[in-house]
Amino acid sequence: DGNDEDFPGYVNTAPDFLLEWHGVDGASSGLGWGDDEAVDEDGDGTWFDRQLGIPGATASFISAACGGGSQPVYGDLSSVYPDGCVTVDLAASGFLMDPSGSLATWGNYLTANGAFYQMCMGYVEQGAFDASTCAAYGVDDSADEFDAACLSDYSPGNFAALADCSGKLTMNFDIPCVPVIEAREVVAEFIEVGGDACGTGDMNSDGGLNVLDVVALVNIVLSGADADCTGDMNGDGGLNVLDVVALVNTVLSGGGRVNEATSAEFNVIGNEVTMTADGYVGAVEMTLLHGNDFALTLTNEALVADFITTGNTTKLMIVEPTGTSMFTAEGNFTIENVVAASNSDDYMHVSVNLPASYVISAAYPNPFNPTTQFSLELNNDAYVSVKVFNTMGQMVDVITNGQMASGTYNLTWDGTDAASGVYLIQTEVGSEISNQKIMLIK
Fold first, then answer.
1. Which of 158, 247, 272, 361 could form a disulfide with 375 if both were Cys (CB 3.0 to 4.6 A apart)?
2. What is residue 244's DSSP assignment?
């Protein structure tokens, strides 16, 4: 009658969770014909498909740009055609091809001319025809597709009528399906009547905890999207990297680790960011600021690594990193914020080691006459002053002075108008100053 005696008031209630165990077919078993759950393949009006069988044979679907026709070609021809021409799938109808060349006379396809030639030669062997009769079928007819209407004039003994037939032959694959009996062995309906889903970590509501839940929680934390409390593993009322670490510990080990890191250093080396830590790191979250030409490649040595870019800001998270490299990047960037954790209780101490704001090479040649050269590499846009002084502290020349964009510059000092002696090249980038000694010999 639709009433539930144990839970009064639940009349014809849709279950929160339905468990069906089928010996033959079903959403989980994957044993139905096809088994596309969205298609009623056996036409009985239900999503159960009570037939087992092979839905088709391997075939290559060739694009029109590469000469494909209305039908695919049986077999995997991805190594025969250029990249991008072929998609390999299953097909119930298609052409036959022999790329090795035994059917070269007919464009490597099985065509009407090719098939009739073999029939004709069989009659020649029986003495019914002269071999010259078969020559009419030694023509490449692979440019067209066979039209069965041409067989209307054919009758036994009227072999000449086949001369009107040509084109690639379409071969049909009969699906060898066998009817079977549906076996619904177990059916159970579950209705939630109480309890709190907060902190369970089951982000995709599939009843279990696995890496899919970790990925879902990472995406929510990075995007800042509104979400319920399912992922609030530490019960602090928010979703953050601490919850991600707690969920990872639950999925992988059921608890914390004795070698948890207490600190981590992040080193910016050229276009790469690396990490060193004194123990296990559960997850790292970082916010980067960058220009429009920025591109990011995250490490693949981690349980989960993902990022979300909004405008000129990128937020990334790396879960359970096992290597030192965090990511490489194209384009300039700055690290606005970084947090890391090894447990769900608190963040660890982190530090970021940035490269020097500039690098200046030694002047060469040195000694010189009358010019010497050196390079200046700026890691950031900066105000730059490069001047030449004599040993008395008097400025004798200005090589460059002004705002400069990040990049590498080749600089030259020409001492043609200066006297022989020792000079100092003073480079000032922002608040940083460096000097190098040079000697002019004339």
1. 361
2. H
Query: What is the rounded average pLDDT of the residues 411-426?
Result: 95
Instruction: Region of 378 please: left (phi>0), alpha (psi -120 to 50) or beta.
Output: beta
Alpha carbon separation from 117 to 112, 135, 139 (Å, rounded): 8, 8, 10
Strands 304-310 and 313-319, by their bridges, are: antiparallel
Flag whether pLDDT at 4 surpasses 60. no
- Neighbour count for residue 28 (Cβ, 10 Å): 10
Contacts of 394 (CB under 8 A, 6+ apart): none
Give the H or E element holding residue 168: none
**Number of H-type helices and E-type strands within the chain:** 3, 25
CA distances from 100 to 84, 136, 416 (A): 21, 24, 75
φ, ψ dihedrals at 210, nearest 5°:
-155, -175
Round to whole Å and give the CA distance between 176 and 51: 10
Q: What is the mean pLDDT of residues 132-152?
A: 86
Q: Smallest Cα–Cα separation from 342: which of 441, 259, 269?
A: 259
Sheet holding 333-341, edge to edge: 304-310, 313-319, 283-290, 333-341
Q: Any idea how long the chain is?
A: 442
- What local confidence, expressed as pLDDT, does residue 13 receive? 57
Confidence of residue 55 (pLDDT cuts 50, 70, 90): low
Residue entry with tokens 């359970």: 320
Which residue, among 371, 37, 78, 48, has the nearest Cα to 180 in the 3D structure?
48
**pLDDT tens column, 155-186:** 776 777 777 788 999 998 876 655 554 555 56
Contact between 76 and 58 under an 8 Å Cβ cutoff? The reply is yes
**Alpha carbons 239 and 155: distance in angstroms, whole number:** 79
Beta bridge partners, 20, equal 187
Convert 374-397 to b/e letters by CB count within 10 Å (16 or more is b): bebebbeebebbbbbeeeeeeebb
Spatial neighbors of 309 by CB under 8 A, at least 6 apart, are 294, 296
CA distances from 194 to 7, 191, 356, 358 (A): 12, 9, 59, 63
Q: How high is the mean pLDDT of the chain?
A: 82
Q: Which residues of 214-232 are buried (b: 16+ CB within 10 A; e: fewer)?
A: bbbbbbbbbeeeebeebbb
